[in-house]
Amino acid sequence: MNHPSPAIVTQNAVRRLPRIALLLFCLAYLLPGLVGRDPWKREDITAFGFMFSLANKVDGHPSSWLQPLLLGQPDPGAAILPYWLGAWAIQYAPSWLMPDAAVRLPFGLLLIMTMTALWYAVYALARNPSAQPIAFAFGGEAQPVDYARALADGGLLALIACLGLARLAHETTPALAQLSFTAALFFGLANLTVHRRLALAAIALALPGLALSGAPSTALFLGTGGALVMAFQERRNMRVRMLDVGLILVICLATAQLASWLDLWRWRLQGLTLGHIQPMVQLLVWFLWPAWPLAMWTLWRWRLQLGQVWKHPHLALPLWFLAVTLFSTLGTGLSDRVLLLSIPAIATLAAFALPTLERSVSALVDWFTLVFFSVCALTIWVVWLSMQTGWPAQPAVNVARLAPGFSFSFSAPVFGIAAVATIAWMTLVKWRAGRHRAAIWKSLVLPASGAALCWLLLMTLWLPLLDYGRGYAPLVAKVSALIRPSDCVNTQGLALSQITALAYHGGYRMVPLGEPHAQACPWLIADHLTLEEVDVSLQTWRHRETIFRPSDDGEAIVVFERVNP
Fold it and tell me: How far, in Å, CA of 286 to CA of 289, rounded?
């Protein structure tokens, strides 16, 4: 039985969001965090370390392009392609561009690919007959192309609005590459019945890309299940549909073979207990906010279609992607980097809530968003003002306690950018509160703009503080007071992030303790938690200093000097 669509949309409600406004908005979200900051702990700087090692071999250890190594240690996540992109960016970037800035160029393009793929995926799904709104008896209903474009705009806004996206999407880690190829795969499957050749090409790129980025099992589950979901669509004959499924399965098989050949399989499944439920719910609530309430509304309003969900790709495809990624998150220790892959699906479901939202629900979303993000922006400004002037006093006291030794300075360009962004937010709020023609994407304008505003304020007003608190440059600066750059240093028990920081910020030549020629190094740097494993006898080493990372008393390194170098 075919149930009527719950979407009742007029042509006036699908007016186009100005393209220049949408482009500038995406750039305002994209650039902060990609420009002007240091690599952060831990995954961000560790990934940069593998790229830097591939490009320069700074630690003296050969690092194969098929198995990137950092001081002889492989990547536990078994990613390859993201490190290739970063290493190529370092090698071919202009000499005046710092390596940590160069690696962000391809990752910025990956984020652009994510946004573009999601927009066109929602556009294709919304043009499916089962997703179209009800036709009116005397005309006036939304035209298919305009309706699809409006929902695609809403899907992109929902993507940007997700709180969990901001930091992870601006780091140079395999997680962003996995997100981008997941979005590309979603795009390919969504367009399989519309632009067959382009869709198959996207799938052929996305599946190996996802595997080479450290997620081969996710690639296979998403690819095979997504192919079966799209095989039930009625827009083409069964022979063509089965051929498409066969081609996608062949690509999946080739991807699995490639992952086996490169030894990329890493099984990270952990035992599931009832104790995982509450942390999982808490993670979902904040990480996918505000898209998940809208996704739940979609499932409620389109509930009659769920009985034959395979005939409704705008529901079936995102639900399959969401199920796979949520199960992977639960089975891998509640990793937010795995949950990141669910954002394209949850944003798509959120978009299909827009044509069914009641006015009271839309108003509730607007008011909650307005209050939440306005309070967040005000807090950022108040703390910045306190650090600049000492008034109000308590925020500056809290900063001094959490980041001892941090000194703040005023930057006119930074202040100008933050002020313009805040004025733009106020203008947008005024526009949203005014009288204008209703557009179905309007309910996601404030959530997306608020998320972008707060991220931009953090990456401008608070960036020096965040670099100090999340970076390793302050710790390496203390080490440099004892050890000259380019000196040989033995290491023991250091994390890959600490190794990268010492090699990049300090320029040291590091050799793990116990390797050949290790005795030639006059210095030893060890993690303070592994001191019992180090030979610290007075005949060999003399303790010089224990150095704590300024913003984290639990992270420290111990510097020793060889007694008779």
Answer: 5
Pairing of strands 523-527, 73-74: unpaired
C-alpha distances out from residue 178 to 60, 153, 218, 339, Å: 30, 23, 9, 11
Per-residue pLDDT of the chain in tens (565 residues, 90 and over written 9): 566 789 889 898 898 888 999 999 999 999 999 988 999 988 999 999 999 999 985 545 556 888 898 888 888 888 999 999 999 999 999 999 999 999 999 999 999 999 999 999 999 999 998 899 988 877 788 999 999 999 999 999 999 999 999 999 999 999 999 999 999 999 999 999 889 999 999 999 999 999 999 999 999 999 999 999 888 775 556 666 788 889 999 999 999 999 999 989 877 666 666 667 888 899 999 999 999 999 999 999 999 888 888 789 999 999 999 999 999 998 887 889 999 999 999 999 999 999 999 888 888 888 899 999 999 999 999 999 999 999 999 999 999 999 998 988 899 999 999 999 999 999 998 887 776 557 899 889 999 999 999 999 999 999 999 999 999 999 999 999 999 988 889 888 899 999 999 999 999 988 888 776 666 788 999 987 766 555 556 567 888 999 998 887 778 999 999 887 5
Q: For residues 215-250, b (16+ Cβ closer than 10 Å) or e, as one string?
A: bbbbbbbbbbbbbebbbebeeeeeeebeebbeebee
Pick the CATH number of 474-562 from 1.10.10, 3.40.50, 3.30.420, 3.40.190: 3.40.190
Closest Cα partner for 227 from 213, 240, 208? 240
* Domain edges within the chain: 11-38+105-356, 359-470, 474-562
CB atoms inside a 10 Å sphere around CB 489: 20
